[in-house]
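This is your field. Please look over both lines of this record.
***
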Amino acid sequence: MAKSPNINVDLKSVQDKIKAQFSGLDPNDPSQWPSWPRNALFVVVCIAVIAGLWFAWLKSIDEELLAAQAQEQQLRDDYRKKLVQAVNLDALKKQLEQVQQYVSQLEKQLPSKAEMDALLSDINQAGLGRSLQFELFRPGQVSVKEYYAELPIAVRVTGGYHDIGLFAADIANLSRIVTLNNLAIVPVKDRDGFLTLDCTAKTFRYLDQEEIVLQQKASAGKKPGAVASPAGVTK
Protein backbone atom coordinates (compact mmCIF):
# COMPACT_ATOMS: atom_id res chain seq x y z
CA MET A 1 0.00 0.00 0.00
CA ALA A 2 1.49 3.35 -1.06
CA LYS A 3 2.06 5.98 1.56
CA SER A 4 0.87 9.59 0.99
CA PRO A 5 3.71 12.04 0.80
CA ASN A 6 4.24 14.35 3.80
CA ILE A 7 3.70 18.03 2.97
CA ASN A 8 5.72 20.34 5.15
CA VAL A 9 4.62 23.98 4.96
CA ASP A 10 6.88 26.64 6.37
CA LEU A 11 4.28 29.07 7.81
CA LYS A 12 6.88 31.53 8.92
CA SER A 13 8.24 31.73 5.40
CA VAL A 14 4.75 32.33 4.02
CA GLN A 15 4.09 35.04 6.58
CA ASP A 16 7.35 36.74 5.75
CA LYS A 17 6.50 36.70 2.05
CA ILE A 18 3.07 38.23 2.71
CA LYS A 19 4.56 40.91 4.98
CA ALA A 20 7.13 41.67 2.33
CA GLN A 21 4.35 42.31 -0.21
CA PHE A 22 2.79 44.92 2.15
CA SER A 23 6.01 46.86 2.62
CA GLY A 24 7.10 49.74 0.41
CA LEU A 25 3.71 50.17 -1.29
CA ASP A 26 3.11 53.24 -3.44
CA PRO A 27 -0.26 54.70 -2.33
CA ASN A 28 -0.56 56.69 -5.56
CA ASP A 29 -0.46 53.63 -7.82
CA PRO A 30 -2.31 50.64 -6.29
CA SER A 31 -2.30 48.89 -9.69
CA GLN A 32 1.41 48.15 -9.22
CA TRP A 33 0.95 46.56 -5.85
CA PRO A 34 1.57 42.85 -5.37
CA SER A 35 -1.39 40.48 -5.43
CA TRP A 36 -2.00 40.26 -1.69
CA PRO A 37 -2.24 44.01 -0.95
CA ARG A 38 -4.15 44.61 -4.20
CA ASN A 39 -6.71 41.91 -3.40
CA ALA A 40 -7.00 43.12 0.20
CA LEU A 41 -7.68 46.67 -1.00
CA PHE A 42 -10.33 45.38 -3.39
CA VAL A 43 -12.07 43.51 -0.55
CA VAL A 44 -11.95 46.58 1.74
CA VAL A 45 -13.42 48.83 -0.97
CA CYS A 46 -16.19 46.33 -1.70
CA ILE A 47 -17.04 46.06 2.00
CA ALA A 48 -17.06 49.88 2.36
CA VAL A 49 -19.36 50.33 -0.66
CA ILE A 50 -21.73 47.60 0.52
CA ALA A 51 -21.79 49.06 4.06
CA GLY A 52 -22.45 52.58 2.73
CA LEU A 53 -25.30 51.40 0.52
CA TRP A 54 -26.70 49.35 3.38
CA PHE A 55 -26.70 52.25 5.84
CA ALA A 56 -28.13 54.64 3.23
CA TRP A 57 -30.96 52.21 2.58
CA LEU A 58 -31.54 51.74 6.30
CA LYS A 59 -31.66 55.52 6.78
CA SER A 60 -34.43 55.95 4.19
CA ILE A 61 -36.31 53.04 5.73
CA ASP A 62 -35.87 54.60 9.19
CA GLU A 63 -37.26 57.94 7.96
CA GLU A 64 -40.26 56.17 6.45
CA LEU A 65 -40.78 54.33 9.72
CA LEU A 66 -40.67 57.55 11.75
CA ALA A 67 -43.13 59.21 9.36
CA ALA A 68 -45.46 56.22 9.59
CA GLN A 69 -45.24 56.27 13.40
CA ALA A 70 -46.06 59.99 13.48
CA GLN A 71 -49.01 59.42 11.13
CA GLU A 72 -50.18 56.56 13.32
CA GLN A 73 -50.07 58.78 16.41
CA GLN A 74 -51.99 61.52 14.56
CA LEU A 75 -54.64 59.04 13.47
CA ARG A 76 -54.91 57.74 17.03
CA ASP A 77 -55.41 61.28 18.36
CA ASP A 78 -58.03 62.02 15.68
CA TYR A 79 -59.78 58.77 16.52
CA ARG A 80 -59.89 59.66 20.23
CA LYS A 81 -61.28 63.13 19.49
CA LYS A 82 -63.94 61.78 17.15
CA LEU A 83 -64.77 59.05 19.62
CA VAL A 84 -65.33 61.65 22.36
CA GLN A 85 -67.48 63.70 19.98
CA ALA A 86 -69.47 60.63 19.02
CA VAL A 87 -70.03 59.71 22.66
CA ASN A 88 -71.05 63.30 23.52
CA LEU A 89 -73.04 63.87 20.33
CA ASP A 90 -76.36 64.32 22.13
CA ALA A 91 -74.82 66.76 24.62
CA LEU A 92 -73.19 68.71 21.78
CA LYS A 93 -76.52 68.94 19.96
CA LYS A 94 -78.14 70.33 23.11
CA GLN A 95 -75.33 72.87 23.48
CA LEU A 96 -75.81 73.90 19.85
CA GLU A 97 -79.51 74.43 20.45
CA GLN A 98 -78.74 76.50 23.56
CA VAL A 99 -76.25 78.64 21.61
CA GLN A 100 -78.77 79.17 18.82
CA GLN A 101 -81.42 80.19 21.35
CA TYR A 102 -78.95 82.59 22.99
CA VAL A 103 -78.05 84.13 19.61
CA SER A 104 -81.76 84.46 18.82
CA GLN A 105 -82.34 86.28 22.11
CA LEU A 106 -79.47 88.65 21.37
CA GLU A 107 -80.83 89.34 17.91
CA LYS A 108 -84.19 90.22 19.44
CA GLN A 109 -82.42 92.87 21.53
CA LEU A 110 -81.14 94.51 18.34
CA PRO A 111 -83.73 96.65 16.59
CA SER A 112 -84.13 96.78 12.86
CA LYS A 113 -83.61 99.96 10.85
CA ALA A 114 -87.36 100.64 10.95
CA GLU A 115 -87.41 100.32 14.75
CA MET A 116 -84.57 102.76 15.41
CA ASP A 117 -86.87 105.79 15.64
CA ALA A 118 -88.93 104.06 18.33
CA LEU A 119 -85.78 103.24 20.28
CA LEU A 120 -84.58 106.85 20.13
CA SER A 121 -87.99 107.88 21.44
CA ASP A 122 -87.64 105.36 24.31
CA ILE A 123 -84.30 106.87 25.30
CA ASN A 124 -85.78 110.35 25.24
CA GLN A 125 -88.80 109.24 27.27
CA ALA A 126 -86.51 107.61 29.83
CA GLY A 127 -84.95 111.00 30.53
CA LEU A 128 -88.22 112.92 30.54
CA GLY A 129 -89.75 110.32 32.83
CA ARG A 130 -87.08 111.15 35.42
CA SER A 131 -87.71 114.90 35.09
CA LEU A 132 -84.39 115.48 33.37
CA GLN A 133 -83.89 118.39 31.03
CA PHE A 134 -82.34 117.49 27.69
CA GLU A 135 -79.84 120.06 26.53
CA LEU A 136 -78.46 117.85 23.76
CA PHE A 137 -79.77 114.77 22.00
CA ARG A 138 -77.94 114.38 18.68
CA PRO A 139 -77.68 111.05 16.82
CA GLY A 140 -74.35 110.68 15.07
CA GLN A 141 -73.15 108.87 11.99
CA VAL A 142 -74.13 105.21 11.73
CA SER A 143 -71.09 102.92 11.75
CA VAL A 144 -71.74 99.69 9.85
CA LYS A 145 -69.80 96.70 11.18
CA GLU A 146 -69.58 93.19 9.78
CA TYR A 147 -72.72 91.88 11.47
CA TYR A 148 -74.41 94.94 12.96
CA ALA A 149 -74.66 98.72 12.78
CA GLU A 150 -73.74 101.07 15.62
CA LEU A 151 -75.41 104.44 16.22
CA PRO A 152 -73.77 106.88 18.66
CA ILE A 153 -75.97 109.55 20.26
CA ALA A 154 -74.51 112.60 21.98
CA VAL A 155 -76.57 113.22 25.13
CA ARG A 156 -76.49 116.04 27.68
CA VAL A 157 -79.08 116.10 30.45
CA THR A 158 -79.48 118.17 33.59
CA GLY A 159 -81.16 117.05 36.77
CA GLY A 160 -80.71 115.73 40.28
CA TYR A 161 -78.13 113.15 41.23
CA HIS A 162 -80.66 110.40 41.95
CA ASP A 163 -82.67 111.21 38.83
CA ILE A 164 -79.57 110.87 36.68
CA GLY A 165 -78.78 107.54 38.33
CA LEU A 166 -82.33 106.29 37.75
CA PHE A 167 -82.10 107.46 34.13
CA ALA A 168 -78.97 105.33 33.64
CA ALA A 169 -80.78 102.36 35.22
CA ASP A 170 -83.77 102.87 32.93
CA ILE A 171 -81.46 102.88 29.91
CA ALA A 172 -79.90 99.60 31.08
CA ASN A 173 -83.36 98.04 31.47
CA LEU A 174 -84.58 98.88 27.98
CA SER A 175 -85.60 95.88 25.90
CA ARG A 176 -83.03 96.93 23.30
CA ILE A 177 -79.29 97.14 23.88
CA VAL A 178 -78.14 100.67 24.73
CA THR A 179 -74.85 101.53 26.43
CA LEU A 180 -73.70 104.78 28.01
CA ASN A 181 -70.09 105.68 27.25
CA ASN A 182 -67.67 108.50 28.08
CA LEU A 183 -69.72 109.72 31.04
CA ALA A 184 -68.86 113.10 32.54
CA ILE A 185 -70.88 114.61 35.42
CA VAL A 186 -70.34 118.20 36.55
CA PRO A 187 -72.33 120.41 38.94
CA VAL A 188 -74.54 123.13 37.48
CA LYS A 189 -73.60 126.67 38.44
CA ASP A 190 -76.15 128.63 40.46
CA ARG A 191 -78.37 125.53 40.84
CA ASP A 192 -77.64 123.62 44.01
CA GLY A 193 -78.12 119.86 43.77
CA PHE A 194 -78.32 119.86 39.99
CA LEU A 195 -75.81 118.06 37.80
CA THR A 196 -75.13 117.90 34.10
CA LEU A 197 -74.43 114.52 32.52
CA ASP A 198 -72.53 114.41 29.24
CA CYS A 199 -72.27 110.99 27.62
CA THR A 200 -72.45 109.07 24.40
CA ALA A 201 -75.30 106.61 24.22
CA LYS A 202 -74.63 103.82 21.77
CA THR A 203 -77.35 101.63 20.37
CA PHE A 204 -77.05 98.81 17.92
CA ARG A 205 -79.21 97.27 15.24
CA TYR A 206 -78.88 94.28 12.98
CA LEU A 207 -78.26 94.78 9.28
CA ASP A 208 -81.01 94.34 6.75
CA GLN A 209 -80.51 92.00 3.80
CA GLU A 210 -79.33 94.76 1.46
CA GLU A 211 -76.70 95.94 3.94
CA ILE A 212 -75.51 92.36 4.49
CA VAL A 213 -74.97 91.94 0.75
CA LEU A 214 -73.02 95.21 0.59
CA GLN A 215 -70.86 94.17 3.54
CA GLN A 216 -70.12 90.81 1.92
CA LYS A 217 -69.07 92.55 -1.29
CA ALA A 218 -66.89 94.97 0.66
CA SER A 219 -65.25 92.11 2.56
CA ALA A 220 -64.61 90.21 -0.67
CA GLY A 221 -63.00 93.31 -2.17
CA LYS A 222 -60.60 93.58 0.79
CA LYS A 223 -59.32 90.02 0.45
CA PRO A 224 -55.55 89.72 -0.23
CA GLY A 225 -54.77 89.25 -3.88
CA ALA A 226 -57.73 91.26 -5.17
CA VAL A 227 -56.51 93.45 -8.02
CA ALA A 228 -58.39 96.47 -9.32
CA SER A 229 -58.56 96.75 -13.07
CA PRO A 230 -58.12 100.12 -14.80
CA ALA A 231 -61.89 100.37 -15.06
CA GLY A 232 -62.14 100.05 -11.27
CA VAL A 233 -63.52 96.51 -11.33
CA THR A 234 -62.02 94.14 -8.79
CA LYS A 235 -60.79 90.90 -10.25
User: Anything to note?
Assistant: The beta strands are 133-139, 143-144, 148-160, 178-187, 194-206. The two ends are 110 Å apart (CA to CA).
